[in-house]
Write a structure and sequence with these properties.
alpha/beta, serine protease, signal, Rossmann fold, about 30% strand, Glucose Oxidase, domain 1, CO(2)-response secreted protease-like, Peptidases_S8_3, protease
C-alpha cells in the first residue's frame, strides 16, 4: 500500500457560484485542500479505454468485443467487474470500466488501444450581448439575420435544460430536418412532449457500472437505475443553450434590470441537449459518450462549456474533449469549447487542441452599479447586483471586518470575513467592510458570513473581481477597488461614528471601454504546445443575461422566481461562438467546420467602442494570447473574402509533428495514413491555421523562421488581394508573394511568411498580417517567441 497526497481543486468559474455550490465550498472552506489518499494496484477505479476511429460495425458485436478485451485483464475470480460503464461505438470506439492501475497499464499495451486514462471529473467552465456584437461590426443590418436557415442543429453538452421556458418555444419553426437521428429521452420529470421543433433532442446519462454486462442469470445483475432526466437542476445548461440559440423573448429582464429582448446568437437554429454534468461536475467518460451520441444524432455544431483544470491538463489523446472533438471534426462538425476560468495568468488556457475552437471571455458595454454613500456625503460607485431596500435617507454604522473579530481570531481572518471569524454581537446592525487578500474565501461565502452575523450589508475591497458583478440577492452588497477602499477605511478611522448605506443596483448602459478581456479568462500560450495560438477568439462572457431554471434562492421580496439569470465565465462566451457559428453555417451550409472558424477569426475585431486597441479588465493593453484573433463579429464573418481551411490531414500531421507514433495516428484516423518524413515540433507552425504562432525564434543569430499558408477564395470570382504587415520594431516579417490573384470562387493560393528578430528583446512579440481586396480585410494575427 502506498500513501500519497491528492490535490483537490474545486475550480468553478465565477458564473457557477450558486448558493448550492456555496454550501459545498463552505464545507471545504477553501478551493484547494490536501487529502491523504491510498492507492494500490488492487483498487479498481473508473478508466477510459480509447481505441480510435470506427467505420460502421455491429453495435452489439462491438460491445461484446469490448467485454472480451476487458475480461482478458480482469482475474477470473473478479468476473463481476467485467462490465462497461460507457461504450463508444458511433464515431469512435472504446469504453470505460472499473480497472486497477495494473489492469489499465496492461490494456495500454494492446495494439488496438490508443490510450487509457483515468475517468476525471471535468469542470463546468442575452438581452444585450448580441446587439453589442452587431453594433461593433460596423454593419448593423438586421436583414442579414433574417435570412438565417433553421436547419442548423446545435448540440449542447452541459447540465440539462428547462424546456418550458419561452426561450425554447418553437413558434414559427418548420418541421425537424429529416436527417436528425436523435431522441428525446423521458425521465422522472421530463416527457417526450417537452421536446419540440426548437428543442429537438434531449439525452441524459447514468454512470451505472452494471449498465452493460455479459448475460447473467443472476436477478441482481443488469438492473439499471433509470432515475434521472434531461431536466436541468443547476441552471448552467439552460443558460448556455439559450445563449447559443434561444428564441426571441420580449420584455426579458432579471428582476427589472438588463431589460430588453432576449435571444440567442442563432434564434432560428435547433437545439439538442446532452445532459452529461451535474452540480459536482462532469465525468470525462460521460462527456465522451455525449460527444459520440451527438455526432451520430446529426448535429452541426457542438458547444462544450466544460474543461479540465489548467493544473492537470492531459495530452491530446488522453483528454476526452480533445478525442471527441477530433472525431467530430472528421464528420464535419464544428466543436466550440470554453478556454477556462483560470486567468489572468499565462499558460492557463485549456481545450487547446487545433481542432477545437477555443473561446476567451470579454465584457460588453453594460455594467451594474451599486452606489455606496458614506455618512460624510461622499459617494463611491461600486459594482454588484443587489435588490436591497436601502435608501439614502437611512444610514447604518460602518465597521471594518478586522475591528469586529471574534475572540481569539486573527485580525487577518476577520478582515477577509472568514467563516467563524466575526463577532456577531459587534457586527449586528452594521455594514461590514471586508478585503479579499485570501482568494480561498469566495464572495458568496463572505456575504454569507456577513448575513450570519446579522450585518446590514457588506462592502468588498477586491481589485481583481470588481468588473464581474456579484449577485447578492436582497442583501446590500457592493464591490470596489483598492483606491476607493482605502478612502473608505480612512473615513472609518477619521470619525467616531462612521456610517454608510448601500443603494440598490442601477444598470449602466453604453459602458466604455468595451469589450475588455475578463480577468478570469484563461490566457495562452497553450501549455501543451506554443506553436498553435490559443485561445482562438474572444466573445461576451461577463454579466450575460439568458434563460435559467426558476429558483427560490435570492428572490427579492414580493417577486416571483426569475426565468432569467445573469452569469459570467468562459462558459457564457463559448455558446456565443457556437451561436455565431450556427449563424454563419445557416448562410453557408456547405462550409466546413474550419471554414466557419476561419471566417470568425479573420474578421474578428481588435478594437473597442472607443476605437482603441483591446485592453484587459485592468486597463492594460491586451495581447493575442489574451484575446485570440479578437472579438467575434458574426455579421462580418458572413463575407470573409478568403478563408483558411484546416483539413483532417493537417490535424493528423499535427499529431505526427507533436510526437505521437504513426501506428497510433493510423488507429485514430481509421486509414493507412503515414506521417511525413522527419516530423518535428517546429513544423506545427505551418499547419494551415488562421493564426500563426512561432514557439522559438532565435534572436541572437538573427535566424529566419518560415511558415506557409494556403487560402481559398470564397468572395467574388475575380479578386486581387494585397498584403500589409503590422509588426513591432525589431521583428522583420516578410510575406511572399505580396499579391494573391483569384480568377474564380473556390480557387486556392499559397504564400510564405518569414520571421526574423533583429533588435527584439526576449519574450513574445505580437502583430498581424492583413490581406485586402478593397472590400474585405482578412487578418491573421501572430505571436512570436524570441529566444
Amino acid at each position: 500500500m502506498q500513501l500519497c497526497f491528492q490535490l483537490v481543486l474545486l475550480n468553478f468559474g465565477p458564473e457557477f457560484l450558486s448558493p448550492a455550490m456555496d454550501n459545498l465550498l463552505q464545507f471545504f472552506l477553501v478551493f484547494a485542500s490536501l487529502s491523504i489518499c491510498a492507492t494500490s494496484n488492487k483498487v479498481a477505479e473508473p478508466y477510459v479505454v480509447y481505441m480510435g476511429s470506427i467505420e460502421g460495425g455491429d453495435h452489439d458485436a462491438l460491445q461484446a468485443e469490448h467485454l472480451q478485451t476487458l475480461s482478458s485483464v480482469i482475474p477470473s475470480d473478479q468476473k463481476e467487474r467485467v462490465s462497461l460503464i460507457q461504450s463508444y461505438h458511433h464515431a469512435f470506439k472504446g469504453f470505460s470500466a472499473m480497472l486497477t492501475q495494473k489492469e489499465a497499464s496492461l490494456l495500454s499495451g494492446y495494439d488496438n488501444v490508443v490510450s487509457v486514462f483515468r475517468d476525471h471529473i471535468l469542470q463546468l467552465q442575452t438581452t444585450r450581448s448580441w446587439d453589442f456584437l452587431d453594433e461593433e461590426s460596423g454593419i448593423g443590418s438586421p436583414r442579414l439575420r433574417s435570412k438565417a436557415s433553421n436547419d442548423v442543429i446545435i448540440g449542447i453538452i452541459d447540465t440539462g435544460i428547462w424546456p418550458e421556458l419561452p426561450s425554447f418555444n418553437d413558434n414559427g419553426m418548420s418541421m425537424i430536418p429529416s436527417r436528425w437521428k436523435g431522441t428525446c429521452m423521458e425521465g422522472s420529470d421530463f416527457k417526450k412532449s417537452d421536446c419540440n421543433r426548437k428543442l429537438i433532442g434531449a439525452r441524459y446519462y447514468t454512470s451505472q457500472v452494471v449498465s452493460i454486462q455479459p448475460p447473467s442469470n443472476d436477478p441482481h445483475v443488469n438492473k439499471v437505475n433509470t432515475f434521472g432526466s434531461p431536466r436541468d437542476s443547476v441552471g448552467h445548461g439552460t443558460h448556455t443553450a439559450s445563449t447559443a440559440a434561444g428564441s426571441m423573448v420580449s420584455n426579458a429582464s432579471y428582476y427589472g434590470i438588463a431589460g430588453g429582448v432576449a435571444k440567442g446568437g442563432s434564434p432560428s437554429s435547433r437545439l439538442a441537449m446532452y445532459k452529461a454534468c451535474s452540480l459536482g461536475g462532469c465525468a470525462s467518460s460521460t462527456v465522451l459518450r455525449a460527444i459520440d451520441d451527438a455526432i451520430d444524432d446529426g448535429v452541426d455544431i457542438i458547444s462544450i462549456s466544460i474543461g479540465m483544470s489548467s493544473v492537470f491538463q492531459s495530452d491530446y489523446l488522453s483528454d476526452p474533449i480533445s478525442i471527441g472533438a477530433f472525431h467530430a471534426n472528421q464528420r464535419g462538425i464544428l466543436v466550440v469549447c470554453s478556454g477556462g476560468n483560470d486567468g489572468p495568468d499565462p499558460y492557463t488556457v485549456v481545450n487547446s487542441a487545433p481542432w477545437i475552437f477555443t473561446v476567451a471571455a470579454s465584457s460588453i458595454d453594460r455594467s451594474f452599479q451599486s452606489t455606496i454613500v458614506l455618512g460624510n456625503g461622499n459617494m463611491f460607485k461600486g459594482t454588484a447586483i443587489n435588490f436591497s431596500n436601502h435608501s439614502e435617507s437611512v444610514t447604518y454604522p460602518l465597521a471594518y471586518g478586522g475591528d469586529v473579530a471574534a475572540e481569539l481570531t486573527p485580525r487577518s481572518e476577520a478582515s477577509n470575513c472568514y467563516p467563524g471569524s466575526i463577532d456577531a454581537d459587534k457586527a449586528a446592525g452594521k455594514i461590514l467592510v471586508c478585503v479579499n487578500t485570501d482568494p480561498s474565501v469566495t464572495r458568496r461565502i463572505k456575504k454569507s458570513v456577513a448575513e450570519g452575523a446579522k450585518a446590514k450589508g457588506m462592502i468588498l475591497m477586491d481589485e481583481v473581481e470588481k468588473e464581474v458583478p456579484f449577485d447578492s440577492g436582497s442583501f446590500p452588497f457592493s464591490q470596489i477597488g483598492n483606491d476607493m477602499g482605502d478612502q473608505i477605511l480612512r473615513y472609518i478611522n477619521s470619525t467616531r461614528k462612521p456610517s454608510a448605506v448601500i443603494l440598490p443596483t442601477e444598470e449602466v448602459k453604453e459602458f466604455k471601454p468595451a469589450p475588455a478581456v475578463a480577468y478570469f479568462s484563461a490566457r495562452g500560450p497553450g501549455a501543451l504546445t506554443e506553436s498553435i495560438l490559443k485561445p482562438d477568439v474572444m466573445a461576451p462572457g461577463v454579466s450575460i443575461l439568458a434563460a435559467s431554471i426558476p429558483s427560490s434562492d435570492g428572490v427579492p421580496v414580493g417577486k416571483k422566481p426569475s426565468t432569467f439569470a445573469i452569469k459570467s465565465g468562459t462558459s457564457m462566451a463559448c455558446p456565443h461562438v457556437a451561436g455565431a457559428g450556427a449563424f454563419v453555417k445557416s448562410a453557408h451550409p456547405r462550409w466546413s467546420a474550419s471554414m466557419i472558424r476561419s471566417a470568425l477569426m479573420t474578421t474578428a475585431s481588435v478594437t473597442n467602442n472607443l476605437g482603441k486597441s483591446l485592453t484587459s479588465n485592468s486597463g492594460a493593453s491586451a495581447n493575442y494570447h489574451d484575446t485570440g484573433a479578437g472579438e467575434i463579429s458574426p455579421l462580418r464573418a458572413l463575407s470573409p473574402g478568403i478563408i483558411f481551411e484546416t483539413t483532417t490531414e493537417d490535424y493528423l500531421n499535427f499529431l505526427c509533428y507533436y510526437g505521437y507514433k504513426n501506428q497510433a495516428i493510423r488507429t485514430i484516423a481509421g486509414t493507412n495514413f503515414s506521417c511525413p518524413i522527419n516530423p518535428s515540433p517546429d513544423l506545427i507552425s505551418s499547419i494551415n491555421y488562421p493564426s500563426i504562432s512561432i514557439a522559438k525564434l532565435e534572436g541572437k543569430n538573427q535566424a529566419v523562421t518560415t511558415v506557409s499558408r494556403t487560402v481559398t477564395n470564397v468572395g467574388p470570382p475575380n479578386s486581387t488581394y494585397t498584403v500589409s504587415v503590422d509588426a513591432p520594431t525589431g521583428l522583420i516579417v516578410k510575406v511572399s508573394p505580396e499579391r494573391l490573384v483569384f480568377t474564380r470562387r473556390g480557387m486556392k493560393a499559397s504564400y510564405h511568411v518569414n520571421f526574423q528578430a533583429t533588435t527584439m528583446s526576449k519574450g513574445y512579440a505580437y502583430g498581424s498580417i492583413v490581406w485586402s481586396d478593397g472590400a474585405h480585410k482578412v487578418t491573421t494575427v501572430f505571436a512570436v517567441n524570441i529566444m
